[in-house]
Amino acid sequence: MSRDPRTALLACAAAEGDVAEAALWLAAEDNPGLDPAPWLAQLDELAEELRARVGGDGVPPFLAVPVIAGLLRDRLRLRGAGGGDPQAHYLHSVMDRGAGIPIACGALWIAVGRRAGIPVEGIGLPGHFVVRVGATLVDAFSGGEPLDQESARQLVSGVAGTDVAELDPAWLRPASVRAILARMSRNLRGCHAAREDWARALLAADRCVALQPDSPAELRDRGLLRWRVGQASGALSDLTAYLDGAADASDAAEVRDVVGRLRAFLN
Question: Looking at the whole model, is its pTM more than 0.85?
């Protein structure tokens, strides 16, 4: 592997490239020495098998849903897993172990489906990532369960812990490769922070900023992690920039307090 993983994943994001390649470069950044090529070859093989199972090109997308689900269950043992284990986040380990969080399961559906000529796109519902195959919403995390509007609404309500009256149309827009990478990185940031693996949490936070440089919240979260690991100057820069872009945020007073302490420390 000769490419720099960060450069490669950002190139995938900028060009709206292959979500699987992008996710594997993300994994390579956190797992030095990981080569995406064998995993991409495996996805190509799965797509060829999927094409054979559906009888070639031109199958109606809704008819492909149970076939994709069956293939990924048969070949990868794909199933949902909790987010506390980092291996449930990285695409290569999900392919190896068969257990992944919703966005990782969804990325596999997108990667295999598109390689086989089936239109699959990611849908970033609040708190839960699903896919859309043609016009059919599918919960890849639950093994490929189709979702109508009501079941999707109930799913969002369950995650939110409160009744959501209706789905916001914005939630149903296709997620870009950049948005998927950023969501994966935020998930990993939280996972590593919960395990007190601050170095990996900070790496994920830095990736979030690289993917969404105009987001004040990403600067804030990287700044707070930098403060935790003792990078006072970098923390001050991030948190000052956050306040410049979000002076009226609900947590602005708390962040100003941290900024004051950092300035006193650096002086």
Answer: yes
